[in-house]
Specification:
By secondary structure, the protein is mainly alpha-helical. It has five helices and no strands.
Length: about 140
């Protein structure tokens, strides 16, 4: 894919920055608020939650920063796709929670579905030339 003009390139950059920084901040939060995240993961039945939280934080940091910087963007996007496909139904199983928790879980589930969709878009962009990127891992 070749972007046809600089406005398209700048829009892609803005989208990469917005999306990637939100994802990276979420990953950073896995380290800054690890105790409560581990507790939540344990409550959801995640095995080895004390290991899963920092690993998932690292995945989100790698994926988010990879998209922002254009560093191994296909790998970054693919990792995020797998993350959202695996984590979303496990952590936001709105169909299994009490009524008073249902709306919050539905909102989190739908947010993650939207992030999955954006990750798929970045994956579809492939290794085409990303303007304003470090271009590490691009051909």
């Amino acid at each position: 894919m070749v972007l046809e003009n600089s406005i398209s390139a700048e829009l892609l950059l803005a989208g990469r920055i917005l999306f990637g920084l939100v994802i990276a901040f979420t990953g950073l939060n896995h380290f800054l608020d690890a105790e409560s995240m581990i507790g939540y993961a344990e409550a959801k039945g995640v095995p080895a939650a004390s290991l899963a939280i920092p690993v998932s934080g690292a995945v989100l940091l790698f994926g988010g920063l990879g998209i922002v910087l254009g560093v191994f963007p296909v790998l970054a996007a693919a990792v995020l796709v797998v993350f959202f496909v695996v984590v979303t139904p496990k952590m936001h199983d709105f169909w299994n929670v009490p009524e008073d928790q249902k709306q919050g879980e539905i909102n989190s589930f739908l947010k993650n579905v939207g992030l999955l969709g954006a990750s798929l878009v970045f994956l579809a962009l492939g290794v085409s030339s990303w303007p304003y990127a470090v271009n590490l891992g691009l051909f």
